[in-house]
Amino acid sequence: xxxxxxxxxxxxxxxxxxxxxxxxxxxxxxxxxxxxxxxxxxxxxxxxxxxxxxxxxxxxxxxxxxxxxxxxxxxxxxxxxxxxxxxxxxxxxxxxxxxxxxxxxxxxxxxxxxxxxxxxxxxxxxxxxxxxxxxxxxxxxxxxxxxxxxxxxxxxxxxxxxxxxxxxxxxxxxxxxxxxxxxxxxxxxxxxxxxxxxxxxxxxxxxxxxxxxxxxxxxxxxxxxxxxxxxxxxxxxxxxxxxxxxxxxxxxxxxxxxxxxxxxxxxxxxxxxxxxxxxxxxxxxxxxxxxxxxxxxxxxxxxxxxxxxxxxxxxxxxxxxxxxxxxxxxxxxxxxxxxxxxxxxxxx
Length: 348
Ligand code: MRU
Fold this sequence. Notes:
Layout: E1 9-12, E2 15-19, E3 30-33, H1 36-44, H2 51-68, H3 76-86, H4 93-106, H5 112-146, E4 153-157, H6 172-181, E5 185-191, H7 198-209, E6 214-217, H8 222-227, E7 233-236, E8 240-242, E9 247-250, H9 253-262, E10 266-270, E11 276-277, H10 294-297, E12 298-299, E13 302-303, E14 316-319, E15 326-329, E16 332-335, H11 339-347
Parallel strand pairs: 4-5, 4-7, 5-6, 7-10, 8-11, 10-15
Antiparallel strand pairs: 1-2, 2-3, 8-9, 9-14, 12-13, 15-16
Helix pairs in contact: 1-2, 2-3, 2-4, 2-5, 3-4, 4-5, 5-6
Bound molecules: 5-S-methyl-1-O-phosphono-5-thio-D-ribulose.
5-S-methyl-1-O-phosphono-5-thio-D-ribulose binds at residues 49-52, 92, 159, 161, 165-166, 171, 198, 237-239, 249-250, 315.
């Protein structure tokens, strides 16, 4: 097992270091990226994952592109690399958001060389701001939960939304950490989150490092857990939030939200403003990443499914805003989110 880590992304003297999240918690292995193509591949292959984290990694990838093309007379090759980076994973809008910020800086220059310092500065700002936003978001979420009944309760979470999935502290898991430190949350039920097991491998590990009471379960156990009244809130992150508040998040979230509503449990979604995509009217317009069938056919390198079958492996699903009780950002809490409330919240 590895030692506690606050962040999975590190920029050191023109090199991007990514903690290989595929190996956790058994191995702490860092991938050295000195070329934008390595960053592209790292995002596609889940070395780095989680909506804010892939945005931050892509921002540093743009810096690596500028360095590689420093002798070029135009910024066009970097713009091409940005287009490729933006395709690496389609659902999380934080990726395009971070690349757009980098392009905004790049386009103030006519050639790569003079842009490099400004690009490093922008990537570091995106990274730092994400941590600051998460800390603020966690304050809002924890304060909101502290007003709920009873004084202390258990929650359920899905996938991994912690320090590993962001610049630091996390979104949904950041709220859980902060609320735990104040005695508001007393236990966390963690869904293992098939097929990548982000819950079992990453969230369980982060909670254990923090000494937070937790239990792992298959997501199939969620209905039973809700029906027993053991948890009060489902608290999850988001990969993209449409203008009406529909949320794309890890596959299974929608099913969990339906079960939660059925049993009178409440649903909280936590995400920074960079996760909102107001150009999309509702969740039906959010592109859903479909990953390789092999992710379902194999476990630990061993084939577990019969040969000759097909598999359906969407990485995300859409939870309609009508199933969400609270949406938490660095700007506060939106209760029962809808188009009008989101419009007012995001433009503040
Ligand atoms: O496929 P992943 O591991 O990148 O999916 C991650 C999630 O679905 C998270 O809930 C989301 O990105 C928010 S991370 C703060």
